[in-house]
Amino acid sequence: MPVYFHNEGVSLVFKNKRAVSSWLSTVIKSFKKEVGTLNFIFCTDEYLLTINKSYLNHNHYTDIITFDYCVENKVSGDLFISIERVKEYSLKNNIEFNNEIHRVIVHGVLHLCGLNDKTEREKEKMREQENKFLALFFS
Question: Which side of the chain, N or C, has fewer Cβ within a 10 Å radius?
Fold first, then answer.
């Protein structure tokens, strides 16, 4: 499975790339989908804000923006993740950074697999799936 990790304006050394790739393959296959290409771009708040304004017409900070390039049943996409948002959220909620970055990663992949988080019920379902797959990764 081609999973690529890039840095844009940040110096994050992302470890366990093979394990993460394998884990994400399991996530995707659990939805009866095929694995395509995933690009994770770790970046700054400002970089992600520019993307948010340019492509989504939103003027606010966020932790992740996922661009869906799925074709038929093949899951592919570009996932931009603000390291600053992830760090802030992990500190604010007393969660280890490593756990939070993996939550954000799987959150984006779950979107590509068809899950949404607009309504309260969808948010609950998303959180359940995140927790399920995080438990699988960290077990």
Answer: C
